Amino acid sequence: MAPIDTPEAPLKSSAAPENHDRSMGQLVVDVALRVLLFATALVAVIIMVTSKQTKMIPVAPGLVVPLDAKFDHSPAFIYFVAALSVACLYSIITSVLSVFALMRGGSSTKMQFHFVMFDALLLGIVAAATGAAGGVAYIGLKGNSHTRWNKICNTYGSFCFHFASSILLSLVSSITLLLLVWLSIYVLSKKIARR
Amino acid sequence: MAPIDTPEAPLKSSAAPENHDRSMGQLVVDVALRVLLFATALVAVIIMVTSKQTKMIPVAPGLVVPLDAKFDHSPAFIYFVAALSVACLYSIITSVLSVFALMRGGSSTKMQFHFVMFDALLLGIVAAATGAAGGVAYIGLKGNSHTRWNKICNTYGSFCFHFASSILLSLVSSITLLLLVWLSIYVLSKKIARR
User: Which chain regions cross the lipid bilayer (chains A, B) (predicted)?
Assistant: First the structure.
């Protein structure tokens, strides 16, 4: 029996490390994407929260009052900050768990399954937040002549710059979440093909 | 050899139909969700496009002009209609492909893999559209005293009712897409566990 077993053994042992290496590589990309998600979500929230700008606005002839522009003046931006904060917290937890999995030498299918479920949910939440903030910020930038909503970005320039950066970063967060979902699905389908 | 083979054969043949039944059940749920997505996206687009309302608005003392409220007055709603139309078209194509798979007796892993990739992408697009339309519609409903954007729903009641229904339906579309992603991931991970 020994001569028959011998050629099979090296084949198996060379295939296993290859699979293992590929799985580890995918896990490293996973961790990198989660860290990117954390960074973009955190910076987006910080930029949005620190966007307050005060300007002296003439309200009547001879009367000028200081008026604030703050993110919490619109429910769309409050939702935006809440959603991005959740994404930030989620990315911390999942990054730590992914790093642990990396140290243990690979992640289980069950863990990947739970991760991709929550990734998809977060994708929906963060994409909706990006859309809501983007829609309202666009009115602030361009105004709307039909409804007589005036643009405010000509007055509050730095405030609008903060908003634009923050919304751009949250778009990056959304795309990162989409890539995380795609990566997980790719890994899961590769596991099926390999068996 | 015959007496040894006999007890194995029924075991195998009873396990295979069970797996097959489960897989067919999942495919039926998949088709049902895709039809739901089609219905909600189509109705949302139709309601949004037919929302035009004309009112006589006093613009100066003694001067009353007819003013329209239409969805294409805001880029957020144009994006909304575009995104939901894409979702509608996508749901038709994937429903037909899923029904074909159902008639053939099951779907391939490769097809599921491609479906869930596009489902996740569509989830992001439709969620962002829902958020954008929702954010702008909320200003229309409540106004914003800080930026002096007046509410318009007190004047254009039926227009706003159309918008609210349409946004609610697109929320259902988003949730349906999330359920489709979850179902596909569940099916993929079950395939791994079964092998």
Answer: 31-49, 76-103, 115-141, 161-188
Mutation test of the interface with chain A: which of B136, B183, B186, B187, choosing the one with the most A Cβ atoms within 10 A? B136
B86: Cβ contacts below 8 Å, ≥ 6 apart: B122, B125
Residue of B nearest to A152 (CA): B147
Instruction: Report pLDDT digits (tens) over B161-191.
Output: 888 999 999 999 999 999 999 998 888 888 8
Range with the poorest average pLDDT among A26-30, A71-75, B95-99, B122-126: A71-75
Burial environment of residue B75 by CB neighbours within 10 A (0 to 12, 13 to 18, 19 or more): middle
Structure ipTM over 0.95, yes or no? no
What is the C-alpha to C-alpha distance for residues B80 and B88, in angstroms, rounded to an integer? 12
Output the pTM of the full model. 0.84
CA neighbor of B76 nearest in space, from A162, A139, A143, A127? A139
pLDDT value at position B12? 44
Contact yes or no for B152 and A150 at CB 8 A: no
Nearest to B152 among A135, A147, A195 (CB): A147
